[in-house]
Design a protein that fits this description.
Structural class: alpha+beta
Number of helices: 12
Order of helices and strands: HHHHHHHHHEHEEHEH
Strand content: 5-15%
Shape: elongated
Number of strands: 4
Radius of gyration: 26 Å
Strand order of the largest sheet: 2-3-1-4
Largest sheet: 4 strands, antiparallel
Helix content: 55-70%
Length: 315
């Protein structure tokens, strides 16, 4: 029997991966490529090949992706390859469609084109990533290198992107093109991080107040959020105090702040951003669990089973 919820999630993921890759290709072909700016990744290598030989970027990009995926299949496994091949295919398809349509940038200002293109590319990558997609390219290289070295995936991607962008100087002999390439790299990375992290950003409040009961009740009833009450001691006053711990979505933080201020304007309150809150009322914790080893030997206590049966469980 088909699980409708799982089918819906999969369909939604593929839709947003497709949309993200289309947005990336639009930013690249419509704003960046007409300015002859080389960006990081396989799109940058494809740009160098295009301006050197005339081979369309999509062909070079997809060919290199297939080669890297074939190598990655043996190095990092089937799961990574299957999760990457759809995004890699879609980005090449959309680059192949959009490249012939844009011979000039949308605006007459090169820097403005680069900025808009970087934002579009970052948003596209971020949208695809939040739905378990990947565009391939330097992601594949970084995943393979990080498997055998201590270099992180993010750092390896940065190294490869810097090498690709810097090499464009030997093609155009224009330092401004190299600088524009770095602008795209920084913008796209920042926007992608914003899209990815905003999706799961939350806020943590700690509240110290004599009216803690009223505040906790109001947060429960009005904001529909839970509170945890801790008992402590104010070391300056040497008196017992109650502390409220509240977790909420970032968009709900203003509501929580208003509730606290309306009940006790003098409440001592701290607020900090937390990246990811998992559990009831928030996101699901998505991790792949290791399969249980049924063949593992069972460790028994040193005492007999009758003795261990009388030991009370630890709470």
């Amino acid at each position: 029997m088909i699980n409708k919820a799982k089918l819906w999630r999969t369909t939604r993921d593929y839709f947003f991966i497709t949309f993200g890759m289309a947005l990336y290709a639009l930013g690249f072909c419509g704003f960046i490529l007409p300015e002859k700016v080389v960006i990081g990744g396989l799109a940058g290598i494809g740009t160098i090949v295009y301006f050197t030989t005339g081979i369309p970027v999509a062909i070079t990009q997809y060919a290199l992706n297939l080669i890297l995926l074939a190598i990655a299949y043996k190095v990092v496994g089937k799961r990574f390859v299957l999760g990457t091949i759809y995004g890699a295919t879609m980005i090449s398809v959309f680059v192949g469609i959009f490249q012939p349509l844009f011979s000039e940038g949308f605006t007459q200002e090169p820097f403005l084109n680069v900025v808009i293109g970087g934002i579009c590319a970052g948003m596209g990558v971020g949208i695809a990533f939040t739905h378990n997609g990947s565009s391939g390219g330097t992601d594949i290289v970084a995943a393979m290198v990080s498997k055998y070295t201590n270099v992180s995936i993010g750092r390896m991607m940065l190294y490869t992107d810097v090498i690709v962008i810097s090499s464009s100087f030997f093609l155009f002999h224009q330092i401004d093109k190299v600088v524009y390439g770095y602008v795209v790299l920084i913008l796209a990375s920042y926007v992608a991080d914003m899209v990815i992290n905003t999706n799961r950003q939350a806020v943590q409040f700690t509240v110290f107040s004599q009216k803690w009961e009223e505040i906790a009740t109001a947060i429960n009833n009005e904001a529909k959020r839970g509170c945890t009450v801790f008992t402590g001691m104010g070391w300056y006053s040497k008196q017992e105090v109650k502390m409220l711990l509240v977790m909420c979505r970032k968009i709900e933080s203003v509501t929580i702040s208003r509730i606290i201020k309306s009940i006790d304007p003098d409440a001592f309150t701290t607020q900090c951003n937390v990246n990811g809150v998992y559990g009831k009322g928030f996101d699901d914790l998505k991790v792949k669990m290791k399969p249980a080893n049924n063949n593992a030997p069972v460790r028994r206590p040193a005492h007999s089973s009758e003795t261990s049966a009388h030991i009370p469980p630890k709470i």
